[in-house]
Amino acid sequence: MVDGGRRGPSQERGLVMDRIVAVARASFAEHGWAGTSLRAVAREAQVDSRLVSYYFRTKSVLLEACLRPPPGYLERIGVVASSPLPQRGAALVRALLSAWNDPQMAGVLRSIILTAAHEPVARERLGQVFRESMIGAVARSLDDEERELRAGLVAGQLVGLAMTRYVWRLQPMADLADDAVVALIGPTIQNYLIGRLTTSAAVASTTGARPYRDPTGSA
Question: What pLDDT does 6 receive?
Answer without folding.
Answer: 43
